[in-house]
Amino acid sequence: MSRLVVISNRIADPRKPAAGGLAVALGESLQQTGGLWFGWSGNIVEEAPTGEGELRVQQAGKTTLATIDLGREDHDSYYLGYSNDVLWPVFHDRLDLANFDAGFISGYRRVNQLFARKLLPLLKPDDIIWVHDYHLIPLAAELRGMGCRQRIGFFLHIPLPPHIIMAAIPQHEWLMRSLFAYDLIGFQTHQDVQHFEQYVRNEANGEVKGQGLYRAYGQTVRCRAFPIGIDVDEFAALTHAKESREMFETMRREYSSRRLLLGIDRLDYSKGIPNRVRSFRELLANYPENRRSATLIQIASPTRETVDAYADIRRELESLCGAINGDYGELDWMPVRYIHRMVARKRVPGLCRAAAVGLVTPLRDGMNLVAKEYIAAQDPADPGVLVLSRFAGAAEQLKEALLVNPYDTHGTAETVQQALQMPLEERRERHQMLLSRIRAEDVHWWRRTFLDALRAAESVR
Ligand code: ADQ
Q1: Catalysed reaction per UniProt (predicted)?
Q2: CA-closest candidate to residue 71, choices 127, 115, 111, 117
């Protein structure tokens, strides 16, 4: 079988226990084929010249890990700038937060060229190459320009916005044109595929040829939805591990007479955390029986803190939680427990299992794996209820969750009340359906179907 080469902005050692489901799933494939994982080392070299970075290659079992350092200027314009201050907000429909600084694009292009230049000599003729996410959209085009003829696939982990929003990016045509250098493009949802199709028709004057083929810019590309999943068995097994059981028991003891509502996210504006907290306040205001009995635990891990919008969301959330605790709290009950930290991965299942309601209410999300983790962690005999935003990619699959519009504070509060009141029989039925859905399309299924499609993709360019 041909060797797999994975390229992503950051890499994870698949043998390390801290590695999440994605690293483990990709790691499995890499170990099978003796693969190569290439990406940024995470190191920033302050005075380095632009467009340069030292390459380090090390062996991790059968997998070769190849990483490059980035200079400060490259890092700031490619990663903080174009990736996280342009593409992230726009792809999550937040034009108001995008910073179209003209300097960012040259850094983005330069780092993609650097990746291509450093990767090219490491490639073998029959390698199969899988590029991940918005940081690396033009990578295949750069590789092709340097003579690379191997099969290259791309997976976008975040949503693709409607064409009219995409068109706000000054370089949108260049970005979309560069996608046509891939042999296969994978999106999270059918809606993303539709957005791609609309772009091809309306902006690129292209043609939808059917059977997942799209023609524009004199080239043809294949594209399909491959919704990412979690490793359900691994997560369910973690639920019974010591750390997780301890977590579960601590929560049960601590909140013995109370119902827990749980949110776990990176502290990102796309996750809709302030909207969620406002809905919880409305729940307490409209349904006083929840006072003293319901507690919202919101765990929000720090992320991208040097970007202004992230400092803003942190301040907003702190003052909102403080106000609710001040207005509704009692000496023996704090309505909201907000924790600005990461929880150890091994404890997450226990926390999920202890929560009567899982609140996964992003304003926009490519998929959202927490929704699937919450389901996997439940006790099938007495499961909690998942309240899920219709704007998370996961909503396309998880139809038995209670779907909400997170912008509708009142409607969300009503649905949370419905979740808290749901009879056991209905909770079991919904959970059983949801569990079978996340099992049928787990992370191994995702990786297999994408790679099978890429391997089978005859060149249509
Ligand atoms: P993310 O935006 O990072 O991923 P998500 O899919 O929810 O979002 O995955 C987050 C992971 O980190 C989950 O495994 C979760 O348990 C963990 N996590 C988050 N906050 C945590 C905390 N405070 N403590 C401990 N663990 C925490 C991007 C896209 C998503 C897409 C994934 C995968 O934005 O839409 O689902 O990639 O494609």
Answers
A1: D-glucose 6-phosphate + UDP-alpha-D-glucose = alpha,alpha-trehalose 6-phosphate + UDP + H(+)
A2: 111
Q: What is the pLDDT of residues 158-171, one digit of tens each?
A: 999 999 999 999 99
pLDDT of residue 12: 76
Catalytic residue among 157, 172, 195, 444: 157
- In the numeric block, the tokens 């926009």 are attached to 364
Mutation to probe ligand 1, out of 189, 192, 243, 266 (largest number of atoms < 8 A from CB): 266
Which of 271, 370, 447 maximizes ligand 1 atoms within 8 Å of its Cβ, making it the mutation to test the pocket?
370
* Distance in Å, CA 183 to ligand 1 centroid: 27
Residue 265 clears pLDDT 70, i.e. is over it: yes
Does ligand 1 come within 6 angstroms of the Cβ of 7? no
CA geometry: angle 313, 43, 119, nearest 5 deg: 115
Amino acid 290: pLDDT: 97
157 in catalytic set: yes
- For residue 365, the CA-to-ligand 1 centroid distance in Å is 10
Q: Which two tokens stand for residue 260?
A: 């827990």
Token reading at 281: 């306040």
Average pLDDT of the residues in 191-211: 97
Burial 333-353 (b: 16+ CB within 10 A, else e): eebbebeeeeeebbbbbbbbb
**Six-digit token string for 345:** 């991965």
Say how many C-beta atoms besides its own lie within 10 A of residue 20's C-beta: 15
State yes or no: is 195 an active-site residue: no
- Count, in order, helices (H) and strands (E) of the chain: 17, 16
Coil, strand or helix: which one is 159? coil
